[in-house]
Amino acid sequence: MLSIIRFFICAMILVAAVACTAYDSTGLLGPVADSDGTHVSFNPPSDIPYNYANMLKGLPGGEVLDIGEFILFFSYINVSNGNALCLFEYDKRTGEVEYFCKNATCAHNTPGCAAYSLNGNLELVDGTVYAERKIINNGAYTIYMVELINGSFVNKAGPDFGVIRHWGSKAYGQTNDGALIYMPDSGKPETILEYFPHNTRVIVDGYYYTGIIEEIVRIDLRNPPYEPEIVVLPKNNLPIFTTDGTNLYYYDEFFHMVRSDMDGKNQQAVLEWPIWPPSVNFDDEYIYFSLYTGDSSEPENYNLYRMKLDLTGVPELLAELGFRIQSTYTFYQYDKLFLTSQNNYKLYAISKDGTGLAELMLPK
């Protein structure tokens, strides 16, 4: 059973890498043109707690971002040569979904689109929204880090430079070959590490956390020479983890959840149920999660649960969904969760009390 679970987790890493693909039929590279439409302005809260600030999820991350009155998210649209990721916005007040690009004549997969060829990795850094752009031409792809400026995403760094993480107002990027780069507001980017293999990546309180083979390690970004420090050796030999900004959460050999301080100390068991790692997320009061027992015919694998963040009480069944959760998203001062279905990658909204499950209906 455990080998099956490990297989599925590794498979989902591959799915996340393959599924997040945008297509370019023109071969055009470089910054996109401004959109003809006008994007609704937003004012992201400056005091947003860490666990709402689009922390990286292991499988996958950066597909949903809370920017205040709106939530940005990716979903697939049909294009002439297959499916492509497209950026949408969800209005918290009305529950309505619109294209991010407001050009009514835009096909949303051409270089003139305000969100052309984006590939996930949304991140909010000091009030600015960043993302990754992947452009495919003749079987080869080029990746850029892009920045939202005046309603359009324009290239900020690249090529072959995409993933971005942040610590306060300091932004860090990762190149395709594994280099970790500090991105100052002005001046030349600084290479922190020439090569650093990675799995999950996140920055908390000046430490860069990542999974390498069978270890969860961290690097102090405040002080060179930036030497990796082993934090945890998970008993399941998989460096899959997440964090609420205060604790690290990872898994034993039975995929029971364990947590510790951010330095790996004070380990304690959270729940002795087989947790499905991609489904885990947090708000101020609860841990949200789903299960995977190794038998896809068992109905409990298709439920949403929650338990108190302080580990008091017992786990609570929130909803019987009928699908396996790929990712769970929580939002700052908002009473709904977003759930991604592993079956079809559709996005659903559900109230935090487990009622009102509804698919987000994309515009035609």
- Per DSSP E runs of 2 or more residues, the count of β-strands stands at 28
> What structural category arises from helix and sheet content?
mainly beta
Low-pLDDT segments, ≥5 res = 7-42, 56-60
Shape: globular
Helix content: under 10%
Average pLDDT confidence is 79
Distance between the termini: 42 Å
Number of helices: 1
Write the H/E string, N to C.
Answer: HEEEEEEEEEEEEEEEEEEEEEEEEEEEE
How much strand content do the residues show? 35-45%
Main beta sheet: strand number and arrangement? 4 strands, antiparallel
**Strand adjacency order, main sheet:** 1-2-3-4
Rg over CA atoms, rounded to whole Å, is 20 Å
Condensed summary:
By secondary structure, this protein is mainly beta.
Q: Please, could you describe this protein's structure?
A:
This protein has 364 residues and is mainly beta. The protein has a domain at 1-195. It contains one helix and 28 strands. It has one helix at residues 2-19; strands spanning 64-66, 70-79, 82-91, 97-99, 123-125, 128-137, 140-149, 152-157, 161-167, 170-175, 180-183, 190-193, 201-204, 207-212, 215-220, 229-232, 242-243, 247-251, 257-261, 268-271, 281-282, 286-289, 303-308, 316-320, 325-329, 336-341, 347-351, 358-359. The longest helix is centred in the first third of the chain and has 18 residues, at 2-19. The chain is globular and about 50 Å long. 39% of the residues are buried.
